[in-house]
Write a structure and sequence with these properties.
heterodimer; A: 179 residues; mainly alpha; 7 helices; 0% strand; globular; B: 104 residues; 73% helix
Chain lengths: 179, 104
């Protein structure tokens, strides 16, 4: 085992362990916080794989934005703060069977397909400079389409969270109503 | 570095996400498990980008796009969950068995 493989394996243990805690913990706030640990270990794995820019974007967007958004969701739905017993549904055992089966199939396929594949890691291949040049030369059209998608999602989220009263008013106005 | 390490980690992380999506009852926890699955896919994309020395960096750029789409998905998903909570006073997926409001 090379040093890179050892560091990667340690980070993988952290990411998988905290991922398991996310799906098994009995406190909903703890699940969000374990998600931070899992995403942080994944960012470390991206760093080992020389994908620096992706690692920092992972830290900024996943840890910084998405987990905060999830915590806001937990707060606004008045989730219980302490231990709650009913976070798992009744189909835990079938879910476990499906997960174990998919893990077995995927791992077997991956090990069979890539047991002889090796690569050498050169620093700088995933730097912001290289990725920026790539995004704004080859992938600039998907980038622009993505910005339109973000705008659409933002408008959709605003429309959804505007509430019932306003939508009833809007219906009244749309029917040419009295006001 | 051997390519089996990242692809196996990604497969296991994806399976953890599958378990979470199927076994959890709270809608926000289901969203979190879906995020785990998306991250497993991202790890695969970065791995194959590095493995095949992609000169266009397609894998890493697609990873960035996936992260942005995940952010949009969480924003919309939370808006839907908040609407559900406002109408039904609970976000348990098992208990959403009425198609219309009012007659629960």
């Amino acid at each position: 085992m090379s040093v890179q493989e050892i560091v990667f394996s340690l980070l993988a243990v952290v990411a998988l362990g905290s991922g398991l805690l996310v799906v098994t913990t009995r406190q909903i706030v703890h699940a969000a916080l374990w998600l931070v640990v899992s995403f942080g270990a994944l960012a470390g794995m991206y760093l080992v794989l020389t994908a620096e820019f992706v690692a920092w974007v992972q830290v900024l967007i996943y840890v910084g934005a998405i987990v905060v958004l999830l915590l806001f969701g937990i707060m606004l739905t008045r989730a219980p703060v302490g231990v709650s017993a009913d976070l798992d549904s009744a189909n835990r055992l079938p879910a476990l069977a499906v997960a174990v089966a998919s893990a077995g199939v995927l791992t077997t396929i991956m090990v069979n397909g890539f047991h002889s594949a090796k690569f050498s890691l050169k620093p700088g291949a995933g730097s912001a400079e290289a990725l920026g040049a790539s995004v704004f030369r080859q992938w600039v059209l998907p980038f622009e389409v993505l910005s339109v998608l973000l705008l659409a999602a933002l408008v959709g989220a605003i429309v959804l969270s505007k509430g019932d009263d306003t939508s009833n008013d809007a219906k009244k106005y749309a029917l040419g109503g009295e006001g | 570095m051997h390519a089996t390490y990242p692809v196996v980690v990604s497969a296991l992380l994806f399976s953890i996400g599958v378990y979470g999506v199927l076994a959890r009852r709270n809608a926000i926890l289901v969203l979190m498990a879906a995020e785990l699955m998306l991250n497993a896919v991202n790890l695969n994309l970065v791995t194959f980008d590095v493995l095949w020395q992609d000169r266009l960096h397609g894998g890493q750029v697609l990873t960035l796009f996936t992260i942005v789409i995940a952010a949009a998905e969480v924003g919309l998903g939370l808006a839907i969950i908040l609407l559900l909570f406002r109408n039904r006073q609970n976000i348990d997926i098992d208990r959403q068995d009425a198609l219309s409001e009012g007659n629960q």
